[in-house]
């Protein structure tokens, strides 16, 4: 019975007590449910309740589609994921690994909202594991075996292209990936190509890979300026290649060594 007569008065002391109780309970809950170790690869993180309305991402397994392993490890399977963790192409590996451990990962394609197609193809190409022609043919072969890709015309499928070439790395991208979601660090590259593979309505600019040695607290290659003291934060990884913007960056880094912290331009 919750009528006005039976309800006890709620005094400020009651309110304070209730607040304290909430604070203590949540603190205890947090302490008791402390850091579970990350689940071993490739099991997804603890599942959220099925009824919860949250994002679910399916990650294709490398042996699930004929050709996917080639896009990850090269034609003879010799390019390792560890090799591909370095340089700008590291984002292809890191995003894949994060999604494998993510609690948003689902193993059920029918309940997935988005599909992630892993590929370390930039790295594989740079290390001689595949030629441009093979990359193109392999992508076409892989996509042709994906009914869920066909279902949406690729609209719910995500690809990472971690270098300036963007999706152009796959020569026939315009035919096959023009509706898919592309994550890439550089958008407009019409300086190099007739058309841009980047579409602001569906694609997303992501930060380039920051080398682990720059961020891992235990083995840092440089001492970065504390975040609080920074006005700007920028990261460039690549070669100057005589390009105006990049040369300017090198100049700025030399001019303001105390503000830029460090600059690696090869
Ligand atoms: C890519 O591969 C497909 C299938 O083999 C082929 O039809 C297409 O012409 C290729 N694209 C380019 C640009 O070579
Ligand atoms: C990609 O698709 C958009 C929208 O359908 C279209 O306007 C554009 O011309 C296409 N780009 C290429 C390169 O085919």
Automatic annotation (TrEMBL):
Localization terms from the record: Golgi apparatus membrane
Species in which this protein is naturally found: Triticum urartu
Superkingdom of origin: Eukaryota
A Pfam family of this chain: Exostosin_GT47
Name of the featured protein: Exostosin GT47 domain-containing protein
GO molecular function: glycosyltransferase activity
Membrane topology type: Single-pass type II membrane protein
Gene Ontology cellular component list: Golgi membrane
Coiled coil feature spans: none
Gene field: LOC125523279
Family assignment from sequence similarity: Belongs to the glycosyltransferase 47 family.
Signal peptide residue numbers: 1-33
Exostosin GT47 domain boundaries: 54-258
Keyword line: Glycosyltransferase, Golgi apparatus, Signal, Signal-anchor, Transferase, Transmembrane
Subcellular location, principal: Golgi
